[in-house]
Amino acid sequence: MKDKINQFIMFLLLLAVIGLGSGCNRNQNQSGEDHEDLSISQVHTSKPINQSVANQAKKKVITEEDISDVKAVNADKELLIAIKVENFERFRLKKIEKNVKSDLEKEYPDHKILVSTDSKMYLELDQLEQKIQKDNTKRKELEKDFNKIKSLMKEQT
């Protein structure tokens, strides 16, 4: 009887070691450090607002390791950017936001840049990007939405 109990305990111990060992195995793709597989939605439009500055800014911002996704829209000489951060980097939101803003201000000195890490701003910019992508909305309507998001971002700071 003791022999069976000892075998059962050894089996449970072996199972626990295997379980812990496989649970701690962390792949680089799972950690979010590999940004090669991330895809940024490029906003292409011909009529209302040229989004080339926003697309270039997205490419630059997504290369930072703390950032998991980015949305950006530009109008005239203004650029609005909302970023999503990795879960463990949420404690450093203000620092990441400040770094992104300073990098983009160096890259685009003639643009007024607003950066936000708020998820509501991210969703609002995502919706605006989709409207621009559809190409069937009027310029005034896009400018109205752009200004609404801009005022929300300013309130936040």
A few lines on this structure:
The protein is of the alpha+beta class and 157 residues long.
Polypeptide structure, described:
It is built from six helices and three strands. By secondary structure, it is of the alpha+beta class. A three-stranded mixed sheet has the order 1-2-3, sandwiched between helices. Helix 5 packs antiparallel against helix 6.
Highlighted features:
157 residues; alpha+beta; three-stranded mixed beta sheet; 6 helices
Oligomer: single chain
| Tally of DSSP helical segments | 6
Q: Strand share of the residues?
A: 5-15%
Question: What is the mean predicted local confidence, pLDDT?
Answer: 82
Amino-to-carboxy terminus distance: 70 Å
Radius of gyration computed on alpha carbons: 23 Å
Helix/sheet category: alpha+beta
Question: What pattern of helices and strands is seen along the backbone?
Answer: HHHEEHEHH
The poorly predicted ranges are 27-37
List the helices and strands and how they pair.
Layout (H helix, E strand, L loop, with lengths): L1 H22 L4 H4 L20 H11 L4 E9 L2 E8 L7 H15 L4 E5 L2 H16 L4 H18 L1
Parallel strand pairs: 2-3
Antiparallel strand pairs: 1-2
